[in-house]
Target: Unc-45 myosin chaperone B
Amino acid sequence: MEDPIQVKEEGNKYFQANDYDNAIQCYTKAIKLTKDKKVLGVLYRNRAACHLKKESYAQAASDASRAIDVDASDVKALYRRCQALEKVGKLDQAFKDVQRCATIEPKNKTFQETLRRLNNNIQEKLRIQFSTDSRVQKMFEILLDENSDKEKKEKAANNLIVLAREDAGAERIFQNNGVDLLVQMVETKDPEMILAAVRALSGMCSGHRARATAILHLVGITRICSIMATDHEEITLATCSLFQAIIDSLSGEDKKEHHGKEEAVVLDTSRDAKIIITHLLEMLGSKKVSGYGRDQALNLLNKNIPRKNLKDPDNSRTLFVVDSGLKKILKVGGQIQDLPDCLPITENTCLTASVLLNKLYDDLRCDPERDEFKKICEEYITGKFDPHNMEKNLHAIQTVSAVLQGPFDLGNKLLGLQGVMEMMVALCGSEREIDQLVAVEALIHASTKISRATFVVTNGVSLLKDIYKKTKNEKIKIRTLVGLCKLGSAGGSDYGLRQFAEGSTEKLAKQCRKWLCNPACDIRTRKWAVEGLAYLTVDADVKDDFVEDEPALKAMFELAKTSDKTILYSVASTLVNCTNSYNVQEVIPELVQLAKYTKQHVPEEHPKHIKATTTARLKRRRFANKTSTLICNQRQTNPILSEMTCYFICRVFLAVTEDSKDRGMIVAQGGGKVIL
Model:
């Protein structure tokens, strides 16, 4: 057995050599080896000194306290605890410790100087504290006084928000009954007051687990959800930020180091997190929730449910959502705005639900989990089919569309369910415009590469052409046109697999550009026109015509700046096609010769896909300028701006910066910041 004194001396040598980690190891080892109280006191005191050097102040205070328990007059331990407590902001406790030190050694100048400094700091802190308390009180008086003028209220609200974002200010608001007063502000029903209260609560919850938990229970999850359910975009966005601040604090995502009381409080946050998820899922299917509120509930689920790192084996949150909320998400994805029973939704709601479905499916770890996901989807869709209720059938097909926009492979399997394709064909032949609209959109989403959707590619063209000729509704016409565009590009960039006769794709593109440039068309119709171009610009002739059409380019870029972010993927795809910045598989001559010999199909490149033509297209200054302006203005703040959209934007960046003369212009527009 080793001698604890010898191990202690070894630790002292490490300490003198500034090797504090090894010193701590030695002192810890010696503590385990000895039962002598006097030696233990010295060891804890020495280890406290190491923690002080490492700036681990909570551990330093803890070890110094243990040394003081052994010997209450250990002046070194008392002073070390004083130093640690001062660093974590506990000035009153630090003052008491140095006061005892000064009593034991009254002639020690270090103790006397520390005593004076701490006394001054405490007085200053009290002055600020009382000043802050009075300011907080005054702010609430102005905000809750009905007779206060508008300008004073706005100023008080802004000051309160700023104060709540500072840790000391947030604590003063919390200690001065601020949460109850903020709830009173919410209950005034005044949008400006609600917005200020929610933003202040969000600031108070950020980076403080104990306070976030207390606010969650004092305000109540039900009340927070009811605020987010309101039909006010700014309020729902602020409430979403409040929920995110609470979730981050509960899970430790805020990355803030806690000391003292915050560190000592052990909280089981899993129950609160589960309750929040349950309430968010309940919001999805509620008619009382606004479209903005539903979007924010989906955004929170998108951000917080799937694992951040797929190497993490714990996907329990995803499994919980699949078991208790998948049908609610499918219900949102299956909403049709033009029907009277539709839930309140925005342009982004259904696509955000599809994004969530995709993320949940990708987060599953094994086949049994994916089979369960598929089973729930199948049960939900087949349960909607009803020969006597056409609206339920519409919801079933719309739900299939939502899954096709999310986990496509699963959506393709759902297309194989008995009755799905038959129902789509029946809806195409219906006299009702809404039936045709839903069926055409489903066909568009089901159409993909020839190898993955043979039935749709083979039979879809005749169905869509028939609808296009018969309908007089512009909304249906544009969708059938996009369907034809997508089916026409099903062969990808392979010139030999083009689906239509020479010149047909240019005619389709011309019609798409016509709708895109028509200001009389609504945004949704123009959005579909861009989607059509995203498929057709695979053709080199269409690319050249589109880049030359300045009004069409301008119309597309203006559309991308609107609040409807579902357009961004189509715009990014169009730009990738126009710049030929997609990945091109390397052609190996030997394999081409082998394929020809065995009479296999060999992909053909369009004559205008050569490097010189692409470079000439990029040389058009207006194209490079408008493209860079658009991508420099994008921010990844919405789940709809997916990884693939961002990837496409990066590919376009590479293309437009190939010419060094364009780089300065792009940097000036903020391109460097976007890339970073």
User: Anything to note?
Assistant: Residues 454-676 form a domain with the Leucine-rich Repeat Variant fold (CATH 1.25.10.10). The chain is about 70% helix and 0% strand.
